[in-house]
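in:
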């Protein structure tokens, strides 16, 4: 009876996984179609700016709709990936990143040779966190009576890349033309009169592809201890890349080998112009949204430190009642119709309001993991090097799409702790 039940559950899980794979393919196809549409509309916008001096409202609206639909598709994709991961925990077909490497022909050949290099390329869009599962944990570490797994330190949830448009490049730099000035002299004109002349100014911008990389040294015995190697890849090497990537995308200085991030290029919040007396954090965010709208862009997200988001959620009215959420139910992370992203990559008291269409991340090389004995005297010391690296660039096409600022310290204590 138990064996029959097990077979039945296995059959149902296999069917559910097949459905999930079909849904994932459908979402991926939709994302590819969306990317193709964005490319087409971007070309159309370039022609319109070249011939008419400005992008048409129809093209602008289409790009905004594509941006919104892309965010929805990304949410669907994440949901399907999570379902597949849950099914895999009970025994399924999906493999962790480490499992993919150690199951590859290159890695098996490396085990046989005992020296050399094994490499696996990973799509950047598939690496979103450092979570581990039973397949990616360190197992028993070949030590009797030892607690299975490795206890990880806390890790930050990665979010910033998901807020921006994706792209790829085969070059070491991205060039784009940015409108830097527009004098609009358009006016009603009498029959036969001279028409007023407007003026457009453009500037060629360049953003360079940067490399993010690091490596670990490990005993050669790790090659025989496959679960431990998978843990290295899943929990530390790849996550280390993505952790730095997120900080670079958000606040990289652009100096040396640093990416020039969103915050250094964002417009400063016009606090003296837009803020009002006794504005709360909620009010300040709304006024930052207004600043983006006055620049004729439509914002899509708000980035806050968890401390500030907690202040907003725990705000009370004069009678001590929460004004933001029902404590028993909780609240959706949406403010003024925009998605709220909380991350410790921004400081307490700091905020960023932005529009997805304002910037794009270009992957030059997908995240890659290599395992090799070909380093210094590692071969004679029975050591291996595990290296992870990626190459990418950030193009902020429309800096006015982003507004960065700080909350007014003198506002309401209940909202501005």
């Amino acid at each position: 009876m138990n064996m029959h039940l097990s077979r039945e559950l296995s059959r149902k899980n296999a069917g559910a996984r097949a459905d999930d794979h079909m849904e994932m393919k459908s979402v991926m196809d939709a994302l590819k179609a969306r990317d193709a549409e964005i490319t087409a509309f971007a070309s159309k916008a370039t022609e319109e700016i070249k011939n008419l001096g400005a992008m048409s409202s129809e093209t602008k609206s289409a790009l905004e709709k594509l941006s919104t639909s892309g965010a929805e598709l990304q949410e669907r994709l994440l949901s399907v990936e999570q379902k597949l991961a849950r099914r895999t925990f009970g025994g399924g077909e999906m493999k962790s990143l480490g499992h993919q490497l150690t199951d590859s022909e290159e890695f098996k050949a490396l085990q046989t040779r005992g020296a050399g290099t094994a490499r696996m390329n990973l799509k950047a869009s598939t690496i979103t966190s450092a979570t581990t599962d039973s397949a990616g944990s360190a197992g028993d570490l070949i030590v009797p009576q030892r607690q299975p797994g490795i206890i990880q330190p806390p890790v930050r949830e990665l979010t910033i890349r998901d807020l921006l448009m994706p792209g790829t490049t085969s070059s070491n730099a991205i060039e784009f033309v940015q409108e830097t000035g527009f004098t609009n002299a358009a006016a009603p004109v009498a029959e036969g009169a001279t028409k007023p002349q407007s003026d457009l100014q453009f500037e060629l911008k360049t953003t360079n592809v940067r490399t993010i990389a690091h490596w670990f040294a490990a005993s050669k015995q790790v090659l025989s201890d496959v679960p431990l190697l998978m843990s290295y890849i899943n929990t530390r090497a790849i996550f280390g890349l993505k952790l730095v990537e997120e900080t670079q995308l958000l606040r990289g200085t652009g100096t040396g080998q640093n990416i020039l991030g969103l915050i250094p290029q964002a417009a400063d919040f016009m606090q003296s112009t837009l803020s009002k007396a006794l504005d709360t954090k909620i009010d300040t965010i709304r006024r930052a949204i207004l600043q983006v709208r006055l620049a004729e862009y439509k914002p899509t997200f708000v980035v806050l430190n968890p401390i500030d988001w907690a202040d907003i959620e725990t705000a009370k009215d004069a009678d001590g009642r929460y004004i933001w959420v029902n404590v028993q139910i909780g609240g959706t992370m949406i403010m003024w119709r925009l998605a709220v992203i909380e991350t410790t990559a921004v400081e307490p008291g700091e905020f960023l309001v932005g529009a997805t269409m304002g910037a794009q991340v270009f992957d030059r090389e997908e995240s890659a993991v290599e395992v090799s004995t070909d380093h210094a005297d590692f071969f004679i010391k029975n050591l291996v090097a595990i290296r992870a690296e990626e190459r990418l660039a950030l193009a902020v096409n429309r800096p006015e799409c982003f507004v960065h600022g700080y909350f007014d310290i003198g506002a309401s204590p209940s909202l501005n702790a």
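note: The longest strand covers residues 359-372.
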